[in-house]
Design goal:
Elements (H helix, E strand, L loop, with lengths): L11 H10 L1 E4 L5 H18 L5 E4 L6 H4 L8 H8 L4 E10 L30 E6 L11 E3 L12 H6 L7 E2 L7 E5 L4 E3 L8 E9 L13 H6 L2 H6 L22
Antiparallel strand pairs: 1-7, 2-3, 3-9, 4-7, 4-9, 5-6, 5-8
């Protein structure tokens, strides 16, 4: 019952599944060697920040080339473009760690704590489109999987507060099982949570969040100039580096992404 997609093109079936369930699973995006490089980079990020327990570290692409390469990965970027067109930004990039023997997380929708996206209208609009690269194996339940509620991005009512407070199970929860190197691609309004992790190792996932160009970034106050100077044109556009910051739809923004 997984909404399985293939890397690259956003097909008509992809669109139907995404609209129906609110998410896609894309297996076999990264090779074993790429997973190893990204996992090692993720561990370095958290060690440099001295994180303890469940934690997330932002903008790792600035210092880790393996994570930078995922920003515009050809398995994912065509699907983002199909949903947003050519004008969007990388709103944030978070590397999350769930510690060994970690419990379930709380049910939630993605968005801003300062302003709930549900206030914008029904159905909740696509403001944050997330591509989550799995860097540890999650082929069976209770390995730090994501648990989703299919189609909940279309619900007109919220998940009951008593369930959220108690972190209770729901009978329609879907625990995503996929190998390392897979990508979970999902709408901000899908109700989801981190599932339990029974392993004796830390679980790492690298999340890339794409948004309309007027959304404020959440993992940085400003872009790192050294990174902008050395990265590719496409990645600079993803950073929101427009000639006129007040006019992201101006002539300085390309109509098509460059391949460089």
């Amino acid at each position: 019952m997984n909404p399985i997609s293939s890397p690259g093109e956003f097909t008509e079936l992809d669109r139907f599944m995404f609209e129906s369930w609110g998410y896609l699973v894309i297996p076999n995006v990264l090779s074993a060697e790429e997973v190893k490089e990204c996992l090692e980079a993720s561990i370095r990020l958290h060690e440099s920040e001295g994180t303890k327990g469940w934690a997330q570290v932002g903008k790792g692409f600035e210092t880790e080339s393996a994570l930078e390469r995922l920003m515009d990965h050809p398995a994912v970027l065509p699907k983002v473009r199909a949903l947003y067109g050519d004008r969007f930004i990388l709103q944030s990039a978070w590397c999350t760690k769930q510690p060994a023997f970690g419990g379930v997380g709380g049910w939630h929708q993605d968005g801003s704590g300062a302003y709930e996206f549900s206030k914008l209208g029904y159905p909740i609009p696509l403001i944050q489109l997330r591509a989550s690269f799995l860097l540890t194996d999650q082929t069976i339940p209770r390995t730090g999987n994501m648990e989703m509620i299919p189609g909940s991005h279309r619900s007109q009512v919220q998940l009951p507060g008593v369930i959220r407070t108690a972190k209770d199970d729901v009978p329609i929860g879907h625990v995503i099982c996929a190998p390392a190197g897979s990508v979970l691609f999902f709408h901000n309004a899908v109700w989801h949570r981190t599932f339990a992790h029974d392993g004796d190792y830390d679980r790492y996932t690298m999340h890339y969040i794409y948004s309309p160009p007027w959304v404020r970034c959440s993992d940085r106050f400003e872009n790192n100039q050294e990174f902008l100077d050395r990265t590719t044109p496409t990645r600079r556009y993803l950073m929101g580096q427009f000639t006129r910051p007040d006019a992201p739809f101006g002539a300085s923004y390309p109509t098509e992404f460059e391949n460089s």
